[in-house]
Design brief:
It is a single chain. The chain contains 16 helices and 2 strands. With about 375 residues, it is mainly alpha-helical. Helix 12 crosses helix 15. The protein is globular and about 70 Å long.
Amino acid sequence: MTSINGYNPYAQYGSAYARAAATQPSLADALNAADAGNSTPLDPNAATNLTLSDAAKAKLASEAATPDFTTVTNDARTALDRLYAAAKVSGPLTTDGKTTIDLSSLDRRSLFAIATNSAGKFTADEQSVASQELTGRFNAALAPAAAATSMTRNYTVVYKAALDYLDGASAEEKATTTWATQRAAVLKGYEAAKQKPDIAPSVSGDPVGAYLAKYPDGAPAGTTKTFTTVATDARAALDAQAKLAAENKTELIYDPKRKFGQLVDFSSFDNRSLSAITLNQDQKFSNQEIYAAKKELDSRTRANILASLKQSQQTGDPTQLSLGILQSYSAMSDEERQASGWSPSFRDNVLQSYKSTNSILSILQGS
């Protein structure tokens, strides 16, 4: 996570991982040797056999498939150069300080490599724009929760969102003093909010407090494509799938019950794209496409509600369901709300449900 604006908190860590990346014995090698009937490579003379559960082996396999930070750094360098070539520019900023490339395609670990100038491969301007992108992602992660907090005055919501974002960092990011300091501050704020949910915590060095001071109702959405452009891109993506199906001597289908054909894949479509198909404002989509997109959008909406319900059941806090729905509502674009049938009156009803439930809990708890 970065600071709210300007300063790049990662710059001092640029070479830290190169020093810390001393070669360690690989547990994956040990398991492979064990599967082959050999002794563990950690001690050729050892007679002890290592046995792991299937879950542990699966986790290890996943970790082994994760590229090392050197590879991530090199790939990030290559990705930047390709973005420059595609945009026909030589750097990430214009002379008046505007960005020339879109870093949204890079994952968080790659952005961290650039922001920290890993292996000295990145310019100061590249570090700056990567840091700005990370800040934008932090803002985007907190925005729905901050909007829900502004409606409910329950600060645990936005602090929990910040904890989740921080905990989603890579091992390299978690190894920094910046990450540890910020997480400690956020955790302290979260614990304070749990004691008095309706009072904003006051914690030194708290990035959530800094965020709320700037965006009390949640950060505004960044510059987005027009809805017409979203629909055009969605049309092109569906056409590309149909073309691929034809090349495979079949057809693109939209009903999973059909036994023949290549079923449409919406996994790469965001909710706004699905909404563009569902609403069909520019008359670009067939009834089959509209029905399938609406079904996928509804499925994702139900999944969000079920996740909130599960959180409510696991914590024993019935307000978590309303809070989760309010966050989902706040995260939607206007088009997504229209396509999903989530009106302002629906939001108001959910908010009233939260307030009523919270009032009842306060009475039961004698507060």
